[in-house]
Amino acid sequence: MPNDQLQVYWKNVLDSAVGAEHGLKETELDALTGRIARIVDDIEAQRKAGTLPYRDLPYREDLVQGVEAQTAVFKRGCENLVVLGIGGSALGNIALQTALRSPVYNLLPSAKRGGPRLFVIDNVDPVQFSAILDLLADQLDNTVFNVISKSGETAETASQFLIIRDMLIKRLGAEKAKRQIIAVTDPRSGTMRGIVDAEGYAALPVPDGVGGRFSVLSPVGLFSAAMCGIDIRELLAGAADMDKRVQARDLRKNPAAILAAVHWLMFNRGKKLHVMMPYACQLKDLSDWFRQLWAESLGKQKSLDGKEIFTGPTPIKALGTTDQHSQVQLYREGPNDKVITFLAVENFAMDVTIPDAPPSGQDMAYLKGHTMAQLINAEREATELALVASQRPCLRVVFPRINERTVGQFIYLYEMATSIAGALLNINTYDQPAVQLGKEYTYALMGRQGFEKMATELREQLRTDAAYLV
Ligand code: PA5
User: Fold this and answer.
1) Is 4 helix (H, G, I), strand (E, B) or coil?
2) How many angstroms separate the alpha carbon of residue 430 from the centre of ligand 1?
3) Is-contact 190 154, C-beta < 8 A?
4) Phi/psi at 399 (nearest 5 deg)?
5) Which of 44, 59, 314, 344 counts the most CB atoms within 10 A of its CB?
6) Taking the alpha carbons of 99, 102, 107, 111 in that order, is the dihedral positive or negative?
7) What local confidence, expressed as pLDDT, does residue 465 receive?
């Protein structure tokens, strides 16, 4: 589908565009070509050895069939789907829904939606949680709860699940409650797996070796997407299209390698803030998804050979045009420490033409006859050019249109860019040891058995010293 091919435009990171002080020389990229080819080879070798299973998700017919079978069962009569999950067990679901369903999907009547209303609760805010439960309280019969946790241990998801389970059993009885819950979790181990097996819930697997932030193309992201009418086969076909392109050994022919190399070279020059700025509301949650992927994968204390390096870029999400009126002043005149990636859309699915201005407002008449798509794209071009004029390096990822095919490509593109960037940084891209400590502190503070000593120490540290209260 050449018309639906995502493209990366990278000229505006070069010295020819933003000047020698802030731009890359072509020779810097030339110097990386051999290393990139070796990294691509290495990643392919890991994939063949079975140690990088996220790379094969576009082709896992077994997983797709499992999702389709459960969707057929759970979609019947379902008016509300509530996803309970956090981090990699929620961000992809939200991103797919925002990108590929109507912005007013949950407000549409049932027949127009083509699927249940979707609520993804990725927090334990008591007001948010209570409000959603109150809203659904008298619709439990037609509400499905999709609990997603690879480990089955995460306190946020565990607490949400316990509340829902208790409520369903009390209101509907144990047998009926069972039919309203579907879990996505590890197929063999973990607390959630134990509960699924003991209580007989329906379940789909988080495939072995696929970490949360690389799992959106597995049942983690696919079940809620399929329930809401997203064409998951087309999404995976898009990812497979990109898979072919990101295997290229030639840096300049591989869009993931270009993204990784440019960001890495810029990082080494002190441009450690990586902004993703879509000019389409539909893409805004994909930058949230990217934020986790980039931060959790690349922010590491140690290199692969055990040295302390405290490395990692800080990803930032912004939204055009909204954040032109909030962030661009800083991006143009503040420290030149960023790489800004614009997400551009060539053809929007809907458009609105701007009418003429009244005689009293002829200063607005220039807008007449233009469409909103023209305006948002003109603002994007204007902002990129203005940044380039201030020697700020910019990348652009171009979506011919937003659909399952291009979103699948985007996801796979950034997953592979992350793998390559992690290899350039010489770190373990796939672990998150620093998140674990926070999880353990939470267990301690919430009284989990085995964490008593830690709890005492933490409480001592938490004691408020009145001298410092103002
Ligand atoms: O990417 C990750 O590994 C994390 O963000 C996890 O997805 C997140 O912590 C939730 O973990 P789990 O799915 O085990 O509940």
Assistant:
1) helix
2) 12
3) no
4) -95, 120
5) 344
6) negative
7) 87
* Statement: the pTM of the whole predicted model exceeds 0.90: yes
CA 435 – ligand 1 centroid, Å? 9
Per-residue confidence band for 1, with pLDDT thresholds at 50, 70 and 90: very low
Any ligand 1 atom below 6 A from CB of 221: no
Long-range (24+ apart) CB contacts under 8 A made by 285-288 are 285/91, 285/94, 285/95, 285/97, 285/98, 285/99, 286/95, 286/98, 286/99, 286/343, 286/407, 286/410, 286/411, 287/317, 287/318, 287/319, 287/343, 288/91, 288/94, 288/95, 288/317
- Tell me which of 296, 384, 404, 415 is the catalytic residue: 296
Percent with pLDDT over 90 in the chain: 97
Q: Which of 175, 325, 453, 460 is catalytic?
A: 325
Identity of residue 127: V
Distances, alpha carbon 352 to alpha carbons 184, 209, 371, 378, in Å: 41, 46, 5, 15
Burial profile 201-220: b = 16 or more Cβ within 10 angstroms, e = fewer: bbbbbbbeebbbbbbbbbbb
Would you give the distance in Å from CA 426 to the centre of its chain? 23
Side by side, the strands of the sheet bearing 7-9 are 7-9, 394-401, 338-347, 273-278, 314-317
**369 φψ region: left (φ > 0), alpha (ψ -120 to 50), beta (else):** left
Question: Which residues neighbour 264 within 8 Å (Cβ) at sequence distance 6 or greater?
Answer: 421, 424, 425
**Could you tell me the domains of the chain?**
7-46+235-425 (3.40.50.10490), 61-206 (3.40.50.10490)
pLDDT per residue over 255-278, tens digit each? Answer: 999 999 999 999 999 999 999 999
Does residue 303 surpass a pLDDT of 60? yes
- Distance in Å, CA 345 to ligand 1 centroid: 31
